Amino acid sequence: MTPVQSLQRKAVAEITAEPPRFQVFTERHLERIPQIARLPEADRFAMRVVAKVLPFRVNRYVLDELIDWSAVPDDPLFRLVFPQAGMLAETDFAAVADALRKDDAAGLAATVAEVRRRLNPHPAGQQELNVPRLDGEALPGIQHKYRETVLFFPSQGQVCHSYCTFCFRWAQFIGDKTLRFSAREAEHLHRYLQAHPAVSDLLVTGGDPMVMKTSHLAAYLEPLLAPEFAHVQTVRIGTKSLSFWPQRYVSDADADDLLRLLEKLVRGGKHVALMAHVNHWRELETPVVREAIRRLRDAGVVIRTQAPLLNHINNDPAVWARLWREQVALGLVPYYLFVERDTGARQYFEVPLARAWQVYREAMQQVSGLARTARGPSMSAGPGKVEVQGVTEIGGEKVFVLRFVQARNPDWVQRPFFARYDEQASWLDQLEPAFGEAKFFFQDEYEAMCRGEIPPRVMG
Questions:
Q1: Radius of gyration from C-alpha coordinates of the chain
Q2: Which domains can be identified in the chain, with CATH numbers?
């Protein structure tokens, strides 16, 4: 046995000897978190104010293993899960704080609801354009935005082990059923997939599907091994569990069952991709996350990693370069650097597109070719995923060079287009066409889709 194997076996023994109990804290338990009790009262009150608007949930593993409490409040992983005053506009923060101090439950609820409405709970036409129909019936637990890929939101997976403060799906977690994507019927999913042979990829998302019991996940996924689903080549699972509860793959009661399910899918000819959300390299340092990665890879699962560029957390080329190098060393595949979406606590986290391109470019300059699989900076906007390919000057005009890497109309994909350079713009709708053009090439068709005059191409 090599020294590395000996250390690995020792680490596994320590991890599995006494499996940790999953313990979670929500907004109601904020003051019971021992580390939080040591913070100034003003900071704790600010957390309570913001947690009334944006969902809060953290587990013991994140508290004890990931956050550097000696560096709080500047620690990036602390800001990743704990609400901060700047995550709400000053006027909104003041209104919620005032209602909270008055101890008026009805007034507080009304104030919070009004603030939430202004936070764009479902960006990019998710409810209006992405929900498909089957036999004339809407399927609210499914989204179909791009021809090859269907998103599925199982009802048992509409929570996470911990919540990220930047999450663009925050509206899933606030208890408002009108804002939630969720499906209980596996039959609807399977019938929809059978009716759409162009779909090659199923993305199971949430929330986090990995909070589900393996038996529930199997009910959705095992039927895909039947011949009528041969066109569904890839099963993707969007998850933060690798960072926030890696015990899911190591020591949970049904961890072995989960690994066997994923291995069965792989042996049955499916490409199984764990779409892991990793925002900072420190999330990959603990022995248990290393063991989770090893077990997943041994089962034949490919782990692809993605994250948004976030002010206060990873707005630094050196952080991204180290993150991608660590991922490649562990056998993970860097996949996307996203632009923070126009929802929730956007004002706190957003980075101008010019800065996003600079961070991406400088990080890429520091890594080898194996880490340059990460695409970005990418905006998941209404028309599709738009990538900032660079900044250049054409005919005396400084411009952003853009392209679709995915789109509502597949004909738009890979078509370059240009926007006037804007130092402050942070989203597609803040950009203007370059060279005196009145509109971007896709705008008329996309606007017609939004008006309902033509159906989205992928579902037409």
A1: 22
A2: 21-117 (no CATH), 126-459 (3.20.20.70)
